[in-house]
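Whether sequence alone determines local backbone shape is best considered at the level of individual chains. When preparing material for the folding task, we compiled for one chain both its residues and its backbone structure tokens. The sequence in question and its structure tokens are set out directly beneath this paragraph.
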Amino acid sequence: MSSVVERILSLMKDNEVNGLKLTSDLGLSSSAVTEWKKGKMKPSADAIIKIANYFGVSIDYLLTGEEYIAPALEPHERLLLDLLRDLPPEKREQALRLIKAL
């Protein structure tokens, strides 16, 4: 059994969700969890995304067992991002070219 499957099964147990409920709620094949447990199949990328969203965990957690924590932004970096997001797309490209030229 892959560690991805082990993490999914652990989340199911912790949240008291059985295989039938999980597959029904997510629109997966009714035998998917059974096939994963037997090692006959692995969850598809689509299933992993759905499961991560369903249990409120990251895809990184399901795949690696560790949550990805993005580095904190400095105040000037946050300001720059906010300003760039507020620009229309053509102005955003212009601003990026100017920054690169510096």
Remarks:
- The mean pLDDT is 91.
- The chain has two domains: 3-64, 70-102.
